[in-house]
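Entry under discussion copied across for reference:
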Amino acid sequence: MGNINPQLIMLPLIVVVFYFFMIRPQVKKQKDQKKFAEDLKKGDKVVLTSGAHGRIVEVADTTIVIEGESGHKTRYEKSAISLESTKALNAPAKA
């Protein structure tokens, strides 16, 4: 009874550590990205994952139309908007 194989203890421990350090943060990030995409509205300044900057002029279910600095309008998928870069763009300037 007292001779428990250490591998039987380590395997569940590895699974728990893997969950809390790998899976859970990724799920949270995906949830935040989805909420961000749903909350987009006309007039928001955004940065795309390609690095393009623009202002939203039209919002549909899965797509948005962005007006670039030169005035051209292009349709993109909502998933192409970078959450981190857009937050940095719209963050207040530090003194």
